[in-house]
């Protein structure tokens, strides 16, 4: 997820490491905080893989700034990850949101629609946070108002996402 966010933000524009960290933290920091001890080793791995390059550029004050650029290999890796997301990238909400933030970079509307269809299929499966045996339980089955609230909010969020997915897939199919 971190690497996808780095690739996506650098696809948008070259960034200094500090600016990149701020953007990554804004996207997913409330769920998974991004520390320098996480970000910079990831950048180092990605540079070793040939996906990112660093160039020193004049700084605003005095010291040169090291700016990160996405290479052609990095563009290809981003497209691969967007076009062929792993199952957790479809099923985990936080990973899905990171993928969705950069899906526009997958230029082919058919490929974009295919990714959205995978999420749609996942969301259309009956599910709950609570089960009785193998049967998902509905909000109205609980006397506990907090579990009712949890399930009601989750249901409303899912319904909104399903409506958006169906409309967006139809739009992409029409292009």
What does this structure look like?
This protein has 175 residues and is mainly α. It has two domains: 1-85, Arc Repressor Mutant, subunit A, CATH 1.10.10.10; 108-175. Helices cover 62% and strands 10% of the residues. It is built from eight helices and five strands. It has helices spanning 2-12, 17-28, 36-48, 72-83, 87-91, 93-102, 109-124, 145-174; strands at 15-16, 52-57, 65-70, 131-132, 135-136. The strands form two sheets. It has a three-stranded antiparallel β-sheet with strand order 1-3-2. Strand 4 and strand 5 (135-136) form a beta hairpin. Helix 1 (2-12) packs parallel to helix 6. The two termini are 29 Å apart.
Q: Which topology of the largest domain does CATH recognise?
A: Arc Repressor Mutant, subunit A
Gap from first CA to last CA: 29 Å
Structural class: mainly alpha
Q: Provide mean pLDDT, rounded.
A: 90
What spatial form do the alpha-carbon principal axes imply? elongated
Classified in CATH, the superfamily of the largest domain is: Winged helix-like DNA-binding domain superfamily/Winged helix DNA-binding domain
Q: Quick one: how many beta strands?
A: 5
Largest sheet: 3 strands, antiparallel
Order of strands in the sheet with the most strands? 1-3-2
């Amino acid at each position: 997820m971190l690497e996808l966010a780095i690739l996506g933000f650098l696809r948008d524009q070259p960034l200094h490491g500090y600016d990149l960290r701020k953007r990554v933290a804004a996207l997913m920091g409330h769920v998974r905080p991004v520390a320098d001890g996480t970000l910079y080793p990831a950048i180092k791995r990605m540079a070793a893989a040939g996906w990112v390059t660093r160039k020193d550029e004049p700084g605003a004050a005095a010291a040169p700034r090291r700016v990160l650029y996405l290479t052609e290999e990095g563009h290809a890796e981003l497209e691969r990850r967007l076009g062929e997301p792993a199952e957790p990238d479809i099923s985990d909400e936080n990973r899905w949101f990171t993928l969705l933030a950069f899906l526009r970079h997958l230029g082919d509307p058919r490929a974009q629609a295919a990714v959205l269809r995978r999420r749609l299929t996942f969301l259309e499966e009956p599910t709950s946070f609570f089960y009785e045996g193998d049967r998902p339980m509905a909000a109205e089955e609980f006397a506990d108002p907090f579990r009712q609230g949890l399930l009601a909010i989750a249901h409303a969020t899912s319904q909104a996402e399903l409506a958006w997915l169906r409309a967006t897939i139809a739009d992409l199919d029409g292009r």
